[in-house]
Design goal:
The protein has four helices and no strands. The longest helix is centred in the N-terminal third of the chain and has 40 residues, at 2-41. It is mainly alpha-helical.
Length: 91
């Protein structure tokens, strides 16, 4: 009986394990696109832009780490320019 249940669950588990990473990556890319749109609209150099850079860097971590590092560095540079210590800590 246990063997029968196990074999009936195998296709379901396989499907979940195969599809989940692709689905998560798609959601991550959509989130990055949304944040990049917000960044394009946000023209002022302020602390909100530092937060956007941090969020973009974090979202890029699983998609394209090098690009994420670039946005993190932009956030750090802006935090230093604005002398925003909290931004330096979290960037």
């Amino acid at each position: 009986m246990k063997r029968c249940i196990l074999f009936s669950l195998c296709p379901v588990l396989f499907t979940v394990l195969v599809i989940s990473p692709g689905f998560a990556a798609k959601q991550g890319k959509e989130r990055v696109d949304s944040l990049l749109n917000r960044l394009a609209i946000h023209k002022t150099e302020d602390t909100a832009k530092i937060v956007l850079y941090r969020e973009i860097a974090f979202e890029y971590y699983g998609i394209d780490p090098k690009t994420g590092i670039g946005y993190g560095e932009k956030g750090i540079a802006l935090a230093e320019q604005l002398n925003y210590r909290k931004g330096l800590i979290f960037a």
